[in-house]
Inverse folding.
């Protein structure tokens, strides 16, 4: 993603209520860092059925006034970070990476690699990124690649807020939507069965219908159990 696209996501978060093409789901990890799964484009009925596009993983970083000022895109084998120009050189990115983001990343990986290519991002961005990488303990392995092993990572602080809350109203909306998806698929299964037969295939579809509908109730049960 380009820096312009990352800036747009930050702007979307700082201007809540405005309509955007993206869908952003946040989960707080600390007072100043939110882990996010972002659908850059909302799913549409016209989407290509062979498309494997889904959500992308991000970490959004806030300053002391709770304004989003930086973002880290997790591409697993690489990271792309960006800081809003007027909030640079304040330590927001470095501190959040050191205390929260890297700790979260190393939960499910043994090392983290980043690439910093000057001819792609420009000298000033490259120099700033190299400085951040070295401060975080990354070791340069070739001209453009830096690696940090999980065993070499030292976390100074890791106070996570891992359980964000969902309102009962929102739970009911999602429960009903799961049920609606199940019933909609049931209607499609009925039309296929009545027009084409395909009994084995239709039986598979019906099993998916039953799974979706039972999961609407399961979701409500789990929500209520989690909110006792």
């Amino acid at each position: 993603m380009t820096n312009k696209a990352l800036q747009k996501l930050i702007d979307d978060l700082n201007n809540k209520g405005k309509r955007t093409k993206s869908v952003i789901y946040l989960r707080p990890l600390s007072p100043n860092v939110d882990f996010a799964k972002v659908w850059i484009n909302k799913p549409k009925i016209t989407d290509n059925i062979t498309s494997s596009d889904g959500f992308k993983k991000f970490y959004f970083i806030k300053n002391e006034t709770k304004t989003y000022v930086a973002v880290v895109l997790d591409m697993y084998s690489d990271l792309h970070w960006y800081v809003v120009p007027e909030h640079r050189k304040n330590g927001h990115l470095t501190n959040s990476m050191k205390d929260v983001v890297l700790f979260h990343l190393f939960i499910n990986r043994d090392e983290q690699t980043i690439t910093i290519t000057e001819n792609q991002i420009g000298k000033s961005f490259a120099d700033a990124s190299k400085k951040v990488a070295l401060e975080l303990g990354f070791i340069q392995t070739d001209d453009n690649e830096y690696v940090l092993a999980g065993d070499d990572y030292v976390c100074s602080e890791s106070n996570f807020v891992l359980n964000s809350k969902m309102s009962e109203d929102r739970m009911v909306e999602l429960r009903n939507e799961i049920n609606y998806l199940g019933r909609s698929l049931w209607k499609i299964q009925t039309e296929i069965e009545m027009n084409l037969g395909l009994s084995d295939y239709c039986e598979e579809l019906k099993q998916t219908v039953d799974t979706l509908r039972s999961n609407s109730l399961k979701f409500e049960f789990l929500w209520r159990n989690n909110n006792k």
